[in-house]
């Protein structure tokens, strides 16, 4: 049942990595929004495979096709149906992997949960699904055009961009293939990924996201706090293992006298360890959070694993896979953040008389 | 709108810290569950104020009163209504704080969002609400009696319990007031909190939670992944700034060849960096996660802040507050984990023919 | 699970007829609504037992007690918790009915569904639950103060008020105990009910509801059409067997050339067989619908039935029951209509830019 | 937002009558169901235009194409995405109707609600959408293969099939184009529709639906009663004005002593005025209900109406429209009934321990 996201701005999706198509329905986008379709495709291109030397070399155009809900360039208030065809399906022989469970993939859990599994690639558990999220997120961004949502790669392995976001120029995020807005760190990260790739190995990393110009009042406590929904959204992304916002895990080491954000007389705060959210509601300061990605599980190495019957088998990873998921995940983080904000933006319209 | 939690095992709550009562409705608890009411009250007692020298000295019995849904000791399948009366209400003079926004509290955001705020204490944003969650969590625990859910304090400030959970004896969690299952670390943590309290200051910390004997197959990808719902639940708790499961933020520094969990022939895994969840679905291994709490915002110190009209005012923190929220949050973490698992346990019943 | 109603203006309820209390939580009522508590109690009094000679003589004050969400007379945007205590509980001996299934009651189905049943009275299936709905509906009415919602008794048995609603004076609805706004029909209906009561029998009837001053645009096709949600709401009321709006079942006999509502140049229509709703969305004309109630199942007669083990048993209906449910159901119809409209009123705020 | 139906067996849809395609996502269908795709297409063929002389002569194949969630012939537990392409789109000139509001259509309300409307045909308000429902309903039927769901035309205009359903042979429903299981009445109905068609007029009618072999216990009181959800579903169908189940509106004229259904010792009842549902829960007896359809609003006649600016305009109805919606609505009624039952069938799995 868990294939819908959001309450008023709501995305429902379908699709397996090697089926005919993936796609979705966006329900609740307000009528009258002039859509920039090229901007949507541009976001998809930021996520698509084959875009640079440090990501998977698989080629898929990932072209979105809209089927409803848009008329003469604008949203009509009716559901927006869309498709992204899977052009890279191969009628290849899957018999080798059919009954095999790859380590740290979802093969085992899907098979046990459902008693059946689409064994051609990752099926539903593939990150290919996130292309759907990009589409909805790109529309959400256009709905929230006043807000600025910028994500960037803040670490790869043990290379950490050690600068607060205030010192970064977000315009540089797209200037390099790893999507790190600091050229010198970007170079180190790219070198790291290339080295790891050569080993047939993979590496984890983190993404930081900053949201600016957020109106005061978004978030619905006590169970739909703004940061709780952002966290849930980020933890939905394949390979994510952690989420922190504002002071995050560092905040757990601090004293209250250092951590509290004193007010200025205009209602802004002198510091922002709260991360732009207090009591689950945006306070108008920048929202920022960090997301941890584990290394991709598919290695281009020989490995042992088991099959359906509990037999040990030796497999050889091959194909075209990402050595590091982080560069392509940057637009996904932004897309989900935009969807969460769009939902709260609409929910907040009925909060008071 | 955000005052309901869960899909099939669903809690809806109400109540302000200084109103007549808080309470809730649990809808969807299966019929025929023999309830141990004393065990529910016992969980509430683990959370209640005044239980030890290192928590707030406020005295409230926090007695739960059930109003429906239970007949002759068992659940009937109809909604379970319950109340916890606020016995500690004082008809005191709130005029001093009425128009004042305490730093890093929700006073400012509630007022801006709703245009009105119950200024007697924290109102709806008070952690008093979590007593409601304990009630529902305690019932969820009884529904899931085969699973073992244990949370404990794993750090206070910079004192970290540096032992993997496998080396700990969970029976010792309740043996000390800080709820750390290692006596020597517990002593250090308690001393730390006492020292901080003497300063009129507060301190953050982390809680680790381990869930054992989880059946394979819980979790509903792609938007209701088990860890995403656990993360959302934990981020709903007052003062939480971060969540990580399995390898967490450490995993983001690792290589795939180290991070992958190789299978044993029985379907268990040799390591468990996945944290018991793969593709958003439980794989039968232990689930474990860590939650970061910021220091409590209320300090027993003098501080500057602003009022409703943007005037600078000087306030003096007083009253009976927690110097560290972590010891009392341990049962809250367990309660929310139990509710999430109960919901997926019920949802999973319709997954396959 | 089915104990919540509405999406944005949402009521969740609990309670059995002979438990300690019934009650509910209203989530999503906008902040800043000045509540007239007396008006809420007045609506409850319209529904309560013992108010006239033609309804049950059971005496219950049905006093609502608010526990949260209201501060200094106004809603705060946080959930409104409320209770109605059951004062008429008797520690009587239920052993006779404990294992018996009354015909056309829910005793049999509740027992079979849940495996257990609160056999003291109707338990959860009792119409006592509708007192909760009155509370939420009375608040919804205050939110929608510009709309006029009037329900009235339009038939009792075969006595039909044969006048279109436009010829009636809604101010007369409360002028007689059967709630029929035509004095001469009211007399006949009251006489009918008294006659039926004398026989120890019961009788069915219908209620018509008219909603005026509805803004254009309420309703969310294709699955939350305004009339579909009204219909679902009405069919939730105990004893309801049918719902029709606008031309209703009569419309099914008509030709399109007679049925179509021609426009005036101001967008109103010359006729209103559509019943104020086109395509599931209000068009600004009066909404009107009719609800059919079966006769109450509890007779003050001797009857045969079965027990839990399939044995035939003879029972004697006794106690204080309604000979006709319709007079007391009038405020319930209005309350549910108000809740449906309040929900759509809030949902509609995010429909367009 | 209102484009999803169901809680566990959930359909979300999109599509306008003259867009590229309509389609949907079925989320929550249990894994392991062997699907008979031909049977699904067969249901679509029962609804499709052009199938007989008494329905619209528009030709559309209405071929369903599945995109996901089915693997090697069986459902996988992941969402089932599907498309039905609109092959009958014409690049015709819509300028004449662009700003015109047809009487008793949704042109006016959609324009007022959303500020914009896809004016090519009915857009989202077109009954073309119901083809999506047929797909989901056909899958629900396969899930509920033990239950028998039969709908049939029970009246056209003033021609009423005056036989209780027990005297009918449901195998005859498909033996004639009006879908009435009594040949002599069918002839009269067909003649009536042909006569009406010749006049350029349209006519209303009713459909009766009977559901047999329903397990005891389906339905979730108090707000998701089985008949309330059935009613809501039926009222979602274009042109429906009324719904009644069991004794329905007739029951409102009856006395309790006649209306009550006495038990047999095996838990069945001697009569079934309850219509197979008591307290909102199925009791194992046949469920039956009746649905009223108004006459189609599109007439092949000249008529007066208004445009966007409030000018009176004269229009001429033309094209290929249904003179009576009822014959093609028979499979739609069945489809929605099947979806409601499938949802409750899954929900009921978690009702008791």
Report on the structure:
The structure is a homotetramer of 353-residue chains. With 353 residues, chain A is of the alpha+beta class. Chain A has one domain: Chorismate synthase, AroC fold. Helices cover 26% and strands 22% of the residues of chain A. The first copy, chain A, has helices at residues 37-47, 95-98, 107-114, 130-143, 183-198, 226-235, 248-251, 256-259, 326-347, and strands at 4-5, 10-14, 21-27, 64-66, 70-71, 74-75, 80-85, 100-101, 148-156, 159-160, 205-212, 240-245, 277-278, 281-282, 287-293, 302-307, 312-316. In chain A, the strands form five sheets. The first copy, chain A, has a five-stranded antiparallel β-sheet, covered by helices on one side. Chain A has a five-stranded antiparallel β-sheet with strand order 10-9-11-15-12. A three-stranded antiparallel β-sheet of chain A has the order 8-16-17. In chain A, a hairpin with a 2-residue loop joins β9 (148-156) and β10. The longest helix of chain A is centred in the last third of the chain and has 22 residues, at 326-347. The radius of gyration of chain A is 21 Å and the shape is globular. The mean pLDDT of chain A is 96. Chains in contact: A-B, A-C, A-D, B-C, B-D, C-D. Chains A and B meet through β1, α3, α6, β12 and α7 of A and β1, α2, α5, β12 and α6 of B. β12 of chain C pairs antiparallel with β12 of chain D.
Summarize the helices and strands and which ones pair or pack.
Four copies of one chain form a homotetramer.
Chain A: E1 4-5, E2 10-14, E3 21-27, H1 37-47, E4 64-66, E5 70-71, E6 74-75, E7 80-85, H2 95-98, E8 100-101, H3 107-114, H4 130-143, E9 148-156, E10 159-160, H5 183-198, E11 205-212, H6 226-235, E12 240-245, H7 248-251, H8 256-259, E13 277-278, E14 281-282, E15 287-293, E16 302-307, E17 312-316, H9 326-347
Antiparallel strand pairs in A: 1-2, 2-3, 3-7, 4-7, 5-6, 8-16, 9-10, 9-11, 11-15, 12-15, 13-14, 16-17
Helix pairs in contact in A: 1-4, 1-9, 4-9, 6-9
């Amino acid at each position: 049942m868990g294939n819908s996201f959001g309450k008023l701005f709501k995305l429902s999706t379908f699709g397996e990595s090697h089926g005919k198509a993936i796609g979705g329905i966006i329900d609740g986008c307000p009528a009258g929004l002039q859509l920039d379709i090229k901007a949507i495709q541009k976001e998809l291109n930021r996520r698509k495979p084959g875009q640079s030397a440090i990501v998977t070399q698989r080629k898929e155009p990932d072209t979105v096709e809209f089927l409803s809900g848009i008329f003469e360039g604008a949203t009509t208030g009716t559901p927006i149906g869309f498709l992204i065809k899977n052009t890279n399906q191969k009628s290849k022989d899957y018999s080798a992997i059919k009954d095999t469970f790859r380590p740290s993939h979802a093969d085992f859990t899907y098979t046990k949960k459902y008693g059946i599994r689409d064994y051609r690639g990752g099926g539903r558990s593939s990150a290919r699904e996130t292309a759907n999220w990009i589409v909805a997120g790109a529309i959400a961004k256009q709905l929230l055009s006043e807000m600025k949502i910028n994500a960037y790669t803040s670490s790869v392995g043990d290379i950490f961009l050690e600068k607060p976001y205030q010192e970064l120029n977000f315009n540089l995020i797209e200037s390099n293939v790893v999507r790190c807005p600091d050229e010198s760190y970007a170079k180190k990260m790219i070198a790291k990924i290339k080295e790891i790739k050569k080993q047939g190995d993979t590496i984890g990393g983190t993404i930081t996201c900053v949201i600016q110009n957020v109106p005061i009042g978004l978030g619905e406590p006590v169970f739909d706090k703004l940061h709780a929904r952002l966290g849930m959204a980020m933890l939905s992304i394949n390979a994510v293992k952690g989420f922190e916002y504002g002071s995050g895990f560092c905040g757990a080491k601090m004293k209250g006298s250092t951590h509290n954000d004193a007010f200025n007389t205009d209602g802004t705060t002198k510091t922002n360890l709260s991360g732009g959210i207090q009591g689950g509601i945006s306070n108008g300061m920048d929202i920022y959070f960090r997301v941890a990605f584990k290394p991709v599980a598919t290695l281009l190495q020989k490995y042992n694993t088991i099959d359906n019957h509990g037999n040990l088998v030796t497999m050889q990873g091959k194909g075209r896979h990402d050595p590091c998921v982080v560069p392509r995940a940057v637009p996904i983080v932004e897309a989900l953040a935009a969807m969460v904000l769009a939902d709260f933006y609409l929910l907040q319209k009925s909060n008071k008389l």
